[in-house]
Amino acid sequence: MPIGGIIISVRPEKTEEILFVLVQFPGVEVHGHDEQGNVVAVIDAPSTWVMEKIVKKINVFEAVLSIGFTYLNMEDEVDGPAPGERIPGLFHGVELDAG
Amino acid sequence: MAQSRREFLKKTAALSAASYIGMNLPYAKAGVAPGAEEQTWHRGSCRLCGTGCRVELGVKNGKAVALRGVKDARTNFGYLCMKGMLFWKCMGHPDRLTKPLFREKKTDKFKEISWDQALDIAAEKFADAVKQNGSNSVGYYGSGQCLTEETYLFQKVFRGGLQTNNVEGNPRLCMASAVGGYLTSFGADEPIGGYADIEQANCFFIIGSNTAEAHPVLFRRIMRRKLDNKDVKVINADPRVSQTSRIADLHLQFDPGTDLTLLNAMAHVIIEEKLYDEKFLSDYTAFKSGKNETVDLEAYRKFLADYTPEKAAAICRGNMTADKIRQTARWFATSKATLSLWTMGINQRKQGVWANNLIHNLHILTGQLLKPGADSLSLTGQPNACGGVREGGGLCHILPGHRPVEKENLRNQVEEAWGMPKGRIPAEPGYHTMAMFTAVNEGKIKALWVNCTSPMQSLPNVELYAKGMKREDVFIVCTDIFPTLTTQVVNLILPAAFHFEKTGVYGCTERRSQLTVKAVDAPKGAMPEVWIVREWARLLAIKLQDPLIAKCVESYDGLEPDYALPKAIWDEYSQKLTKGRDNDLRGATYEVMKQMADGVQWPAPTEEYALTGGTVKKFVRGMDPMADSHAKDDKPYQFYGPAHPDGKLWIWLREQAAPEEVPDAEYPFYLSTGRIVDHWHTSSMTGRIPELLRANPYAFVEINPKDAAKLGIIPGDMVEVESRRGKNMLPAKVYEGPTQGMVFVYWHDQHPDRLINKVTKDAFDPGSKEPEFKICSCRIKRISGPQALTPFIYNG
Ligand code: SF4
């Protein structure tokens, strides 16, 4: 179960709005923010796959300009993915197997 | 994991993030140390792009368990992108190659063999080829992802041992035009400034680069600079609106290939409105016509007369207007400091060198160079295209230390350093990449070593060259960590150690060399390339009865391969072959680099100087030791680059010239290709990381909504993209990205239906020999509604 430390850079005037959005994501904790639009957050997710999905969803907001990772701990996940797995699903708009 | 441990890790994560932006969190004082401390931390570079971000790998019980950015690194200040965060997953991956595999015929099944057998076969086949067909029947095709020590040693054995300059690498496909541009405009390869200019720039001119996806951490720095300084302008010039355009004040969209007109029109405005820097021009500049004749400012003005903004806007089309061109030129010329950034949109072109020259022209004309924040900065795609291949001698026409092969005195310097007789290195450059694979097609190359790259996916018009690689009379050996589309067509696969499983140096975009020291063991059976080459060269010497081949590796006898061997190779290269060259790296010893958070920028002739970080700006007296030692007069800037004997910067008169293939009635669309944030190159690594694969399991074709409407295509439909060379079938993404009349496809997908290099064109720049991946013509049609697709990663 990985834990990631991230800095989300948002348009400063939209920081409050994004803070409100962030608390809706399960596993996302906001630890601080500043006037320049830097938001320090921690993602505690069941897998790096879910973490990636959360990051993608946060990134969709227009006010979010970039998400920078600074730290990732994945000590529970070191055995690596299974080879040759197949992921059913369509390209567009269909949820893929969450793994 | 106990709750308290998770809480501890979360606080660690938050503290690490907060520390990068100077934010104090309340519990910092409560005694939680930044970094979970059960693991040991090992510093190195990220593996997955040319930005050169510094990371620390956390290792526990011999396994990688954590990764964090290095806060003091001037490349990334601690930030990493998601892809960079996950590259460690390649290490223990079950698909790793761990046994040498051999088959006599390419239609046979592979058999596992021992390392002794494998090296013997590789030596036998190369020796046979040389005996029967001469030195030029063998070749090396390497990569901008190899460590410098690896590229250097391979080319040493091929040139000094086998006596061929058939030494190439995939940077020919991405950076060669930038090399040509720097050499012809500034007289020396590689940028004058670097990333430090980002925080001081007031105007960014980003052209032909989707920085946000291809260099995410650099994009973050640009974005931060803009957010923190309201007057900073960002201009994004690209036929496609991309993630990068999100922060642009002005997006210039034009038909692919018309950017030479745009750049000349900007110069036109700068001249007409007298926005140029007269003193800079008279002190430091020469004007050159296409035939390398010296002309003057007046001739340049006349040359540009035809490039009025009005005419240019009509040629460029898209959203271009004369006013936008004027505005761009004014911002560019009058900002306190302008920084241009580009990548493959400029380089992968038949006029790639010219396009580079025209960007440099604007900087020279306006004096937007050499001062803080101003630079003409070509971004590199691979982590070691600059360090290993451009500097280490990894292309057919250059020897280590930026030495052109055809210069006898420079060849002699290398021969002397290697203890070889004069004349050992052939004077003729070898085959450049496209010529090399043409020679493979023609059966002229009989034995080829492919190292850490996958030409079966990355060459343009790839099916044509696949024919040659499949020939039974061409022996191919491939060193890699995973099966790739290329391992499909080879005779011998040698399993290699991955990043952090071996030691060596990467040199990123900004002349910066950074060391990564081995932190974990490679899977049993995978070996570092430097060991492989040393052992192979010894056998080759016996089979060819040539002691000079053995001499190439003699001084490395008995050295263990994890640290001592690469260190000895680096010492030889840096001390003997960069001495007195413009990439002088003598100060950048392993000992110095180990002390630095982020390595050393060359020139760095002494250790004492290297420990300051090296040269942030080339050519500036007081900032660049070579500008002082090579000074010809008392002017503050000294252009000592080897290619310009007059010591000047050259402004080139270069006309608009069309791409090799433009749309016509039969193939009415432009096709361009590029990267997506989660994947890298041929996705042999990122495709095996489920988080990244699932985020973008397939390539797709991006179509402008107006074109899609005309052709009855809706999002998700399966669309055929066909050129004169081949076709793909891909799902459609319909959005206001590509300009009308253009489609765009990501090139990472290995599936035969979605392998876009079947469709791209293999025309290349006559100067740089870099292919025109970015522009060809195609036609598209709807095949069906959405179809279930399966992601595909070739796995042997
Ligand atoms: S930007 Fe490039 S070098 Fe930096 S973390 Fe991402 S992939 Fe790695």
Strand and helix map with partners:
The complex is a heterodimer of chains A (99) and B (796).
Chain A: E1 3-10, H1 15-22, E2 28-33, E3 38-44, H2 48-59, E4 64-73
Antiparallel strand pairs in A: 1-3, 1-4, 2-3
Chain B: H1 3-20, E1 40-45, E2 54-60, E3 63-69, H2 82-86, E4 101-102, E5 111-112, H3 115-133, E6 138-142, H4 148-161, E7 167-169, H5 176-186, E8 203-207, H6 211-214, H7 216-228, E9 233-237, E10 250-252, H8 259-272, H9 278-284, E11 285-288, E12 294-295, H10 297-304, H11 309-316, H12 322-334, E13 338-342, H13 344-347, H14 352-366, E14 375-378, H15 385-392, E15 398-399, E16 403-404, H16 408-417, H17 433-441, E17 447-451, H18 455-458, H19 462-469, E18 475-480, E19 492-495, E20 504-508, E21 512-516, H20 529-543, H21 547-554, H22 564-577, H23 590-595, E22 600-601, H24 607-610, H25 625-629, E23 649-652, E24 669-674, H26 690-695, E25 701-703, H27 705-711, E26 718-722, E27 727-734, E28 742-746, E29 776-784
Parallel strand pairs in B: 6-7, 6-17, 8-9, 8-13, 9-10, 11-23, 13-14, 17-18, 18-19, 24-28, 25-27
Antiparallel strand pairs in B: 1-2, 2-3, 4-5, 4-19, 11-12, 15-16, 20-21, 21-22, 24-29, 25-28, 26-27, 26-29
Helix pairs in contact in B: 3-20, 4-15, 4-20, 4-21, 4-22, 5-14, 8-11, 8-12, 8-14, 11-12, 17-19, 20-21
